[in-house]
Amino acid sequence: MVGVSVRGISKSFGSASILNGISLDICDGEFLTLLGPSGCGKSTLLRIIAGLEQQDCGTIEVAGIKVDHLRPKLRDVAMVFQSYALYPHLTVSENMALPLRMRRLSAWQRLPVIGALLPNVRSVCTEIKTEVARTAKALGIDHLLSRKPSQLSGGQRQRVAVGRAMVRHPAVFLMDEPLSNLDAKLRVQMRGEIKELHRRLGVTFVYVTHDQTEAMTMSDRVAVMLDGQVAQVASPRQIYACPADRRVAELIGAPKINLLEAAPRGEGLLAIAGSTLAVDNVLDFGDSVTVGIRPESLQFADRAGLNTLTGRLRYVEHVGADLFAYVDVPGSREPLVARLPVELASRLQSDQTLHLRVRCEQALLFSADGRRLSEGDGQVTPLRSYAE
Amino acid sequence: MSQQQVVVDRELWVETGSAEALAGYALVGPALFLILVLFILPAGAVLAIAATDWHLGAKTLSFIGTANFTSLLADRAFRAALFNTAAYVLMVVPSTLVLGLSLALLIESGKSLRAFYRAIHFLPFMTSLAAMAIVWEALLHPTIGLVNQVLAAVGLPTANWLRSETTVLPILAVIGTWQSLGLALVLFLAGLKAIPQELYDAAEIDGADGLLDRLQTVTLPSLAPVSLFVVIVVMLRAFATFDIVQILTKGGPDDASVMLLYALYRESFEYLRTGYGAAIAVIFLVIVIALAAIQTRVVNTRTSRS
Amino acid sequence: MSVLKIMSQRCLPAVIVLGAVLIGNVAHAQSTVLRVSAAPSIFSKTFRALASAFERENPDVRIDLDVSQFDQPAIMRQTLRMAIFGDLPDVSFQGSNYLRLLADRNLLIPLDRFMNADPAWNPQLYSPSVASAGRVGKMTYGLGVGMSFPIVFYNKSLVSKVQEGASSFPGNWDGILEVARRIQSENNQVLGLFSEYNSFMFQGLVGCFGGSMMNADDSRITFTDNAGQEAMELIRRIGLAGQAKVDMTKSQSRQAFTGARIAILLDSSSSLASFESEVAGRFEIGTAPLPMTGSDASLPTAGITVVMHTTDPARQGLAWRFMKFVTGVEGQTVVATTTGYVPANETAIANPGSLADHYAAHPNMQAALRSTPRSRGWYAFPGENAGRIDMMIEDRVGEVMRLRQLPAPALDRLAKDISTQLPK
């Protein structure tokens, strides 16, 4: 069953084309992240799903119903914004009650003094109050109900924004980079809470972020968006292990994947950075190939040889449990990053010559136009055009 | 010779702190002097003159204590001035606020020519009210004025706007609103630009997507600080109205449009009863300071709460 | 030695400049400077012409002229301010209604002494009206330079249409009101008669009926007598005739008159020049003096009088020479031909010469000229509250004009209010 269906959505602002024929099927109840660098159109897509922007062409379906001509409030979606967008002059409980008031009370009934005198208003208001209290308790903010947003911390505001979305019991939760305004520690905590929330509610979540850690840790699936198109939609594991495109590979993984130009030498051999790699796959390499090696695929070696790269150690980053060595190799402007065990720290010095063995079975090969060369398995959404 | 000089120098500047303080006073000195001479001393002089019966140009005066103030409160013309000024302010401030906000919303929602509309509406604020008052006088002429001609052509009743006790104050309020409108408009436009689009988005998703709902949920509450500022500025300007009374009505007919500042001017410079006029000035000052203090308190409590 | 050299290098230019100034001053030491302030500033050309003409005839005197003040109230206030600093000019031109105020503050030198001592001051050269314009109580504080009176302006085309051939304008109030009524009934866009009702006009109307504001020694209010009642009744009739509904400000009434929306206008004679240039031939303007009844009838005189401030006897002599020049035939000719004022000195008009030719070419000035014999000073109430009293008069008379109050009770209330403002 499809929660949200996006078909052929295109959008331009003036002469700038932001979205180019996006199609995406979001399963009911799944947590899908739209991941991409700034300007790739992910927020625009989210806003189009919400109904805040009108697409130039294409359709959106939510829970099986075409919503293209419906106003946002009728689309059964709720949205949490990057800056929370809490109404600054209302208290927390009033902020959370607003969507319910808008939905259940007419304009006359909402008037400040006169409205309270109309029949039924009292009972509806009490209903709303109970629901708000319940949601607040679930989020742990029931002690803040009478405060104004300016008196709350970042994390508390976030929860209020989530609560405001929750009271509506929407079919789809839309989140536009909600954690980017929080500090690192809070971010980690909130990641867990959002994931927990998703588990509890079981509702479709569409989450937009540029932070790949969030995407990897929280999502059921990740849709990587680049230049207004979906580069790949797959589970985080697959995106990591089998990126469809060189740019997807660059996006995912910290530190960034090492990319080196290689020249085929026939028979599965590649000349790379002054040494030779023997690759298992026998594929049509073409004239040149880019090899992607994750930092954890590089191991310390005693001496040079086949499948071993040699270079000068530039510097070392010690991050507690890991050691990252930055090595200059010939043929590459950027240093190679290798993840090495911390015990080696004492044996490493700047400017020494370092040998790194490549685990070739983990290497990713990309053709000249960026596509990954593979036997063809894995969920890959091929790019229609590739603009460098 | 040089040795002695060094000793002398050291004695002169025992603490460098005093040198800095001296420099500070020297720099502040001119400004302080000007404030004293142009503001504090004249204000003090007015306070002193208010307790005398001095007439402009008289060589002698005598202290009469608070006699000026007691006769002011019993004076029909002064009570009329107080009442008229209050009524005028109560007419100008709300209408400027409402009209300015409405115009700002209209202009902001338009797609083009925003700068043009802004300029057009700001022009009256920049022009000299004295020149504009003469134009208004021609417009409001009871027989050949444009206003009455248009009203008569449309079939609406006309009136002798500047010479009827019932219409003169409202008409002055219209002119005052017309002039302050530009200021309110520009301030509201700036305030509107500062409202984050995300709030409108959230409101739209929450269901507040009609014009009135948006106004009530997002726009008006966000404009509260700007509105407060506009109220303060317009109120103080309205309180200090003088030019239109002096040029158009001279307080008439029969004191129906005399305002505080005009009463002050008339008593001091036309009747030459400067002591009496100074008493009016003191009362005016007290009222303005009170208003400003109240408004400062309101602004402070708002900003400390948020 | 080096010090001297430096000094001479720095000081030499200063010495030269100083020397030049001193020499220049010595050269001018022959002529004395007479400081003169004059208003209104729209007639600055007239005052400059007077100054140059005087300087030509009296090469030993140089006039330092200040025409910066806009109107008579402004120059009065400037005079008061300068008095505080002891910086009064030697001579100034003031509005006749401010003479009392300035005299009470001892800022004016009485002129009777000069008039009596000077053989050149005789009625052949200076008519009595010159001195009477500047009389306050028993003393003369100023000499009349130019006078203006309230007169009747009328739109000749509108009036002749209802006059059915009678070419002369009615000489009494009933007649004028009748003409106004007829014009109004024929042209419903036109107001027949408009009169302003400030203190000056009220004095004028009371004077037309032979009355005055107070009695001769300022002890009793007299405008509540018969003359005042008649004047107030006339005001009411003017209001009834139409002004009550379309009351307007002075400038609006002038616009309406030149726009042919008011047929008959009571205004100051000095407006004639501006009316004629505004009308620019669209219709012919006629003038007539205010109808006066009885031999006691008088008219208040607006206009400028020249007064003396200086206390130094040598300069007083110079000032007196200047004042005589301005009020003499030559000065009065300048005034009459370049302003709308009537010359205060009747002998200037009587003598054949350029002035007589000038008036022959401007028949509309006759109305003002004929008012001259009846002229009396612009009365100012005693005490410090004259300005306030003027406002009270305008308010009460305005009420009657707008038909909000009947004449008799308005007069009583006015008398009561004014008596509280008079010195006890």
Automatic annotation (TrEMBL), chain A:
Its main location: membrane. Involved in beta-(1-->2)glucan export. Transmembrane domains (TMD) form a pore in the inner membrane and the ATP-binding domain (NBD) is responsible for energy generation. Keywords: ATP-binding, Cell membrane, Membrane, Nucleotide-binding, Translocase, Transport. Belongs to the ABC transporter superfamily. It comes from Bradyrhizobium cytisi. This is ABC transporter ATP-binding protein. SMART domains: AAA. Pfam families: ABC_tran (PF00005), TOBE_2 (PF08402). Residues 4-252 form the ABC transporter domain. The lineage of its organism: Bacteria, Pseudomonadati, Pseudomonadota, Alphaproteobacteria, Hyphomicrobiales. GO terms for biological process: carbohydrate transport. One of its GO terms (cellular component) is ATP-binding cassette (ABC) transporter complex, substrate-binding subunit-containing. It is found in: Cell inner membrane. The keyword Ribosomal protein does not apply. PROSITE patterns: ABC_TRANSPORTER_1, ABC_TRANSPORTER_2.
UniProtKB/TrEMBL annotation, chain B:
The chain crosses the membrane at residues 22-49, 86-107, 119-139, 168-190, 220-240, 275-294. GO terms for cellular component: plasma membrane. Pfam families: BPD_transp_1. InterPro entries: ABC_transporter_permease, MetI-like, MetI-like_sf. This is Sugar ABC transporter permease. It is found in: Cell membrane. It comes from the Bacteria. GO terms for biological process: transmembrane transport. SUPFAM superfamilies: MetI-like. Belongs to the binding-protein-dependent transport system permease family. It comes from Bradyrhizobium cytisi. It is a multi-pass membrane protein. Its main location: membrane. Residues 82-295 form the ABC transmembrane type-1 domain. Keywords: Cell membrane, Membrane, Transmembrane, Transmembrane helix, Transport.
TrEMBL record, chain C:
Transmembrane segments: none annotated. GO terms for cellular component: periplasmic space. Keywords: Periplasm. The keyword Nucleotide-binding does not apply. It is found in: Periplasm. Belongs to the bacterial solute-binding protein 1 family. This is Extracellular solute-binding protein. It comes from Bradyrhizobium cytisi. The lineage of its organism: Bacteria, Pseudomonadati, Pseudomonadota, Alphaproteobacteria, Hyphomicrobiales.
